[in-house]
Specification:
Elements lengths: L3 H6 L5 E3 L8 H9 L4 E4 L5 H14 L4 E6 L5 H10 L4 E5 L6 H6 L4 E6 L2 H9 L5 E4 L5 E2 L5 H11 L4 E4 L5 H9 L4 E4 L1 H4 L8 H9 L5 E4 L7 E4 L2 H11 L4 H8 L2 H6 L24 H24 L1
Parallel strand pairs: 1-9, 2-3, 3-4, 4-5, 5-6, 6-8, 8-9
Antiparallel strand pairs: 7-11, 10-11
The structure holds ligand TUI.
């Protein structure tokens, strides 16, 4: 499974764990890096001090490369950037915005920036700005999403760019990895699958809600604010839908959203909290140790490839 992504990132498998605000803390990120993928701390939701602590914890738990996801809309974004620089984090992924000049600033101190993007136009601009790889995130993903599916976004990014593309959104097993590779991706990022791991520190109600989900359990809310978010359908999403239906102003809708993710992740309130999760939730039936998730996915991907090869020959 060697690709330009395993070479650039110096990892065994081209598998990244999505940096999820409130969800991917040191225990999950270090477990993924120890298992041969790239574990990523989600800085969104953390204070600068908490981010520094988590980075130090990951460094203590693994010698393998790891990353930090900077949520560009975080009120602490400038402080987070300073922490990442001071701690010499090897890889930074960015979300919910345009990292622009950050790419050069980080490159000067050997920090690799990989933007998470949902449009080809911005990807081309960031390739020109020096990005070494991009993550193409389809609308199947959990959390803040764009408007194009993984199936359509990945090949269009691959054709438009010279740098390697990592696919994200709608992948949770070996078949999904092979599908993304068939589209030209050289790596895959997964979020929801890693939420259902022993090492992920979210409340057990959050994990159980994903295990119970089916193909149609997620909805997007907040479309009226210009920032649609995908999460599991519950009392909160119905409240959002009702408000949006009434044409309630953007500020009121944003007010309802404040603190909701933390309520689900930390307090386990999966009825009134925001259970961000991808459309692939319906495929996840088990909470497993990270190593088992990674090893079985890699094994299944290789087997799927063999089966496909065999079928093509016949
Ligand atoms: O960042 C995400 N997904 C997220 S961040 C997040 S944090 C949070 N959200 C709500 C409440 C509390 C916490 C949850 N989910 N995905 C990465 C991603 N970024 N996908 C698409 C984009 C993106 C969007 C706009 C990238 C660039 C962009 O640029 C706009 C521009 O300036 O052109």
């Amino acid at each position: 499974m060697r690709t330009r992504i395993t070479d650039i990132l110096d990892i065994r498998y081209p598998l990244l764990q999505g940096g999820m605000a409130w969800v991917s803390t040191a225990s999950l990120a270090s477990a993924v890096s120890e298992s041969g993928g790239l574990g990523i701390i989600g800085a969104g939701g953390m204070t600068p001090e908490e981010l520094r602590e988590d980075i130090r914890e990951v460094k203590a738990l693994t010698n393998h490369p790891f990353g930090v996801n900077l949520m560009l809309l975080s009120p602490y974004i400038n402080e987070h950037i300073e922490v990442v620089k001071e701690e010499c984090v090897p890889v930074v992924t960015t979300g919910a915005g345009n990292p622009g000049s950050l790419i050069k600033e980080f490159a000067e101190i050997d920090i690799l920036t990989i933007p998470v993007l949902s449009s080809v136009m911005l990807a081309k601009r960031l390739e020109r700005a020096g990005a070494r790889a991009v993550i193409a995130e389809g609308l199947e993903s959990g959390g803040h999403i764009g408007e194009v599916t993984t199936m359509c976004l990945v090949p269009q990014m691959v054709d438009a760019l010279g740098i390697p593309v990592i696919a994200a959104g709608g992948v949770a097993d070996g078949r999904g990895i092979v599908a993304c590779f068939a589209l030209g991706a050289e790596g895959v990022q997964m979020g929801t699958r890693f939420v259902c791991s022993h090492e992920c520190a979210v409340h057990r109600h959050y994990k159980e809600a994903i295990l119970k989900a089916t193909d149609r359990s997620t909805v997007t809310t907040g479309g009226a604010t210009g920032h649609p978010v995908r999460c599991l359908r519950n009392r909160l999403t119905r409240k959002f839908e009702e408000m949006e239906g009434r044409g309630v102003c953007r500020e009121e809708i944003e007010k309802l959203g404040a603190g909701c993710l933390k309520r689900a992740v930390c307090d386990g309130d999966v009825n009134e909290g925001s259970v961000m999760a991808g459309q692939i939730s319906g495929l996840i039936h088990e909470i497993q140790p990270v190593r088992e998730i990674v090893e079985s996915m890699v094994h299944d991907a290789v087997q799927t490839m063999d089966t496909l090869n065999q079928q093509m020959k016949e």
